[in-house]
């Protein structure tokens, strides 16, 4: 019997675009622009919805420190 692989982050722990917007204090439109230009935190689609791994968002933010 094969078992399905389990993602490293449980689905319950994923952030929506509104969550990331509130965390980073930027408009959701900015997040969509960043995604279009591949400049923002990594996101992936679940159906039609964008989801973010909170650890990946924090890592992305830390990498932006000057």
Present the secondary structure layout:
Layout: H1 17-24, H2 28-36, E1 44-46, E2 49-51, H3 54-63
Antiparallel strand pairs: 1-2
Please describe what this structure looks like:
The chain contains 3 helices and 2 strands; from the N terminus they run ααββα. By secondary structure, the protein is mainly alpha-helical. The longest helix is centred in the C-terminal third of the chain and has 10 residues, at 54-63. The chain is globular and about 35 Å long. The mean pLDDT is 88.
Structure characteristics:
single chain; mainly alpha; Arc Repressor Mutant, subunit A; two-stranded antiparallel ribbon; globular
Sheet-strand content, in percent, reads 5-15%
Output the strand order for the largest sheet: 1-2
What value does the Rg take, in angstroms?
A: 13 Å
Shape estimate: globular
Indicate the low-confidence ranges by residue numbers.
Answer: none
Number of strands: 2
Structural class determined from secondary elements: mainly alpha
Average pLDDT, all residues: 88
The helix content is: 40-55%
Within the CATH hierarchy, at the fold level, what is the topology? Arc Repressor Mutant, subunit A
What characterizes the major β-sheet? 2 strands, antiparallel
Count of discrete alpha- or pi-helical segments spanning 4 or more residues: 3
Order of helices and strands: HHEEH
Give the tally of structural domains: 1
Distance between the first and last residues' Cα: 50 Å
What's the CATH C level?
Mainly Alpha
CATH architecture: Orthogonal Bundle
Domain Helix-turn-helix: 16-64
Protein name: Excisionase
InterPro entries: DNA-bd_dom_put_sf (IPR009061), HTH_17 (IPR041657), WH-like_DNA-bd_sf (IPR036388)
